[in-house]
Design a protein that fits this description.
Blueprint: H1 10-32, H2 52-55, H3 63-78, H4 87-91, H5 93-117, H6 132-135, H7 147-166, H8 172-193, H9 199-220, E1 227-233, E2 236-242
Antiparallel strand pairs: 1-2
Length: 243
């Protein structure tokens, strides 16, 4: 019989689900209270006010790059399912599926809250090539941070972390990790090339997603060298990492 690697608890998982839902609903509420964009909103935009690293993105615009980044986003949903090709994963299927849902909900909640609370116009808002209809869309002032990148990073890092736990002696885990690191990086490149995000949006999205994807399995591991735990704090959740 395969070894059980993860455990679940009402307290720990309740805090994750509860906090994630709060982030998601809070972000949706804030976004719903924002005013509808008009042409006048773009008259004050100056690329010179942006970070130097971000200014070049205002010249980018590619529908093909945007569409390709959507493929990476959609493929990320499937990546964790490939784990179930192994018997070891199927023996831990209940816990893996719960963690999978937590990664999606927590990353989605953090991303939605950030997009609602932080108003940042997408690079195409500065670009005369982009149509006015696109600029007036409801997502134009929700550039920070990249949801595509955080989504791909969270699920690819989750997949690699779980695979590493399932097969710690396998040399193939280096290939899995290489893919997990590369997928959100490529997605980020495409989002910048498409004019949908600034490099700083991508960097933050990558970091947030990678942390969520890595630490959710760590929080549930039965055997680990480090001790990671989650606690409830005022206004959300906290993480304790001891050595």
């Amino acid at each position: 019989m395969a070894q059980k690697l993860y455990d679940t608890s009402w307290k720990k998982d309740g805090i994750i689900y509860g906090s994630s839902t709060s982030f998601l609903l809070g972000g949706q509420y804030i976004k719903g209270r924002k005013n509808t964009l008009t042409e006048a909103n773009f008259s004050f935009l100056r690329k010179e006010t942006l970070f130097d690293i971000d200014q070049g993105a205002t010249r980018n615009f590619s529908s093909n790059a945007a569409m390709t980044s959507d493929y990476f986003r959609d493929a990320a949903w499937i990546a964790p399912m490939t784990l179930f090709l192994s018997r070891q994963a199927r023996e831990n299927s209940k816990e893996i599926l719960m963690m999978y849902s937590e990664v999606i909900l927590l990353n989605g909640g953090i991303t939605t809250l950030a997009k609602g609370a932080i108003e940042r116009y997408r690079p195409y808002a500065y670009n005369p090539i982009a149509s006015l209809d696109l600029k007036l869309s409801s997502t134009t002032n929700r550039s920070f941070f990249s949801g595509h990148v955080s989504h791909v990073a969270s699920l690819s890092f989750f997949t690699a972390t779980v695979f590493d736990d399932l097969y710690p002696e396998s040399d193939f885990r280096y290939v899995v990790w290489a893919g997990a690191i590369a997928a959100p990086a490529i997605t980020g490149y495409l989002r910048v090339k498409a004019g949908r995000h600034f490099p700083t949006d991508v960097i933050v999205g990558y970091g947030v997603g990678a942390l969520v994807g890595y630490f959710i399995p760590e929080l549930h591991k039965i055997t680990r060298d480090s001790n990671v735990d989650i606690i409830g704090v005022d206004g959300g959740l906290g993480m304790v990492y001891t050595f």
